[in-house]
Write a structure and sequence with these properties.
Elements lengths: L2 E5 L3 H12 L3 E5 L12 E4 L3 H4 L10 E3 L4 E3 L6 E3 L9 E4 H14 L3 E3 L4 E7 L2 E7 L2 E4 L2 E4 L6 H4 L16 E11 L9 E5 L6 E7 L4 E7 L5 H14 L3 E15 L8 E2 L2 E3 L15 H17 L7 H31 L2 H9 L18 H5 L3 H11 L3 H21 L8 H16 L6
This protein binds flavin-adenine dinucleotide.
Length: about 450
């Protein structure tokens, strides 16, 4: 029986373990934390349809509720862009620990094994093939290693250059996040319960203030690390305009990181496939990654089962990458251009886009499942996009930036559309170079 090991109990890794164990593979997940201490002490929002993609039932309805529409603000808080997503398309909100308990239980029922409290230290590489994992409790060899160890995966970082998997996250490609649930200081009715503030105080990043029945959820995400003193100062800043935000931290209160970038340029090599945050599968800008990881797990499991010889080589795993980019990655690469654009606009320019209808509430109807912000760039064509921004923006400097965003996105789309159908090292290396070059082209300079 072919042996598969999963490094880290990330959502996608557990989902892949579940699907592959059900198919008859011998699958073990190696996770650093105890089973009772999985995930963070807060809630997540994601598209519930993702459970059916990984053949798991919906959790008990008492464990989740429907999320509400969000309201977006530019730096100056002049204009509120209110999402209007129909109720049946809204995502669900669920405790992260309950999500983990549900998927671990389903994976175990399908035959997946777990080794908790066993940290992965590095990959075992023989020649140019990943052959297993070095863990705290000893070496394990396998026919395939699935890397679900998150953003800073020691497996990905330990791969030799010959594998061609680039572990460098890159500048402005991860959010440093502080998240805490505070008590509710007032019980007054709040009009916009889920607020997302872009570049408040003219600091590059986002703030999320969500008023719940018994607490207010604050998330501060920035492109540069910050400390607790700064987090507390920022909480005070939000308190001034959000009286429901109390001062007592009732849950969370941790610093974490979220990737906000294009997907990894090469998801596979011989004996290895990356999934979840290890492969940067979050939606750039908003950082949702759970549903995408589930979908990727299905694509990976299908690809693995099609490899009837069990070679699990870069060549046979390549279809996983093709599937992922076709369904999600190509769009996320374009959204990564939008994210970069946000870092080159001045706060006044960003306000201009909000205030003059260049960015609309419809554009912000972005969630983990759809990427409608992409509409800003794609429209029906890049030509439409050009027409739209040229008609709406009078300021020449801002117009120039917007046109360069469109040009860059068109360049990225052109490269992603040329991803090799079949794997040859030469063709894939050349594509990876072209993709990384298109992505790294600066909107400022191009
Ligand atoms: C504050 C915050 C809020 C978020 N909100 C949402 C949301 O609302 N909706 C949404 O869809 N997404 C959200 N995300 C993103 C989401 O958490 C991830 O995209 C998703 O969990 C997929 O990441 P992952 O499971 O691959 O990685 P991770 O969540 O990082 O999980 C990696 C797993 O590997 C384990 N691990 C790491 N290193 C080792 C090691 N050396 N040895 C063994 N095990 C190891 C970790 O303990 C962990 O269990 C949020 C992220 C953060 C930080």
């Amino acid at each position: 029986m072919k042996k598969i090991v999963v490094a880290g109990g990330g959502h996608g890794g557990i989902a892949a373990a579940s699907l592959l164990a059900k198919q008859g593979f011998d699958v073990t997940v190696y996770e650093q934390h105890a089973e009772t201490n999985m995930g963070h002490d807060w809630t997540d929002i994601f598209a519930p349809g993702a459970f059916s993609r990984i053949d798991m039932p919906m959790p008990d309805p008492s464990l989740y509720e429907t999320k509400e529409n969000m309201t977006f603000y530019g730096p100056g808080f002049h204009t509120a862009l209110r999402q209007d997503i129909p109720a049946e398309k809204l995502e669900i909100k669920m405790e992260r620990r309950d999500i983990y308990a549900h998927i671990i239980r389903c994976a175990k029922e399908n035959g997946a094994k777990f080794e908790f409290e066993n940290a992965v230290l590095a990959p075992i590489v023989l020649g140019d093939r990943v052959a297993g994992l070095r863990t705290e409790k000893g070496d394990v060899y396998a026919d395939l290693v699935i890397d679900a160890c998150g953003l800073d995966s020691p497996v990905k970082k330990g791969l030799p250059a010959v594998c061609g998997v680039n572990a460098d996250v890159g500048k402005n490609n991860q959010f440093y996040v502080y998240r805490a649930f505070y008590d509710r200081a007032t019980q007054d009715e709040v009009q916009d319960k889920y607020k997302v503030c872009l570049f408040a105080e003219n600091i590059l990043g986002i703030g999320w203030v969500a008023t719940e029945a018994d607490h207010t959820d604050l998330l501060v995400g920035r492109f540069e690390p910050f400390d607790l003193e700064e987090a507390n100062r920022t909480a005070n800043y939000y308190r001034a305009s959000n009286p429901s935000l109390g001062t007592k931290v009732v849950r969370g209160g941790q610093f974490v990181k979220i990737p906000v970038r294009q997907p990894l340029s090469k998801l596979v090599c011989d004996g290895y496939a990356a999934i979840g945050d290890a492969a940067y599968m979050t939606v750039p800008i908003i950082g949702s990654g759970i549903a995408n990881s589930f979908k990727a797990a299905r694509m990976l499991a299908d690809t693995v089962s099609e490899d009837t010889d069990g070679a699990f080589s870069a060549e046979t795993l390549w279809n996983y990458q093709r599937r992922y980019y076709k369904e999600l990655g190509n769009s996320f690469a374009v959204l990564a251009c939008v994210k970069e654009a946000l870092t080159v606009f001045t706060p006044a320019e960003l306000d201009y886009l909000f205030d003059n209808g260049v960015i609309t509430a419809n554009d912000m109807s972005i969630d983990a499942d759809t990427t409608s912000l992409i509409g800003i760039l794609q429209g029906n064509s890049i030509g439409d996009y050009k027409k739209k921004v040229m008609g709406a923006i009078k300021d020449k400097v801002l117009l120039g930036k917007m046109l360069r965003v469109g040009k860059k996105a068109a360049g990225v789309m052109s490269v992603t559309s040329r991803m090799p159908r079949a794997y040859t090292k030469k063709a894939v290396d050349s594509w990876v170079r072209a993709y990384e070059k298109a992505i790294s082209k600066s909107i400022q300079e191009s």
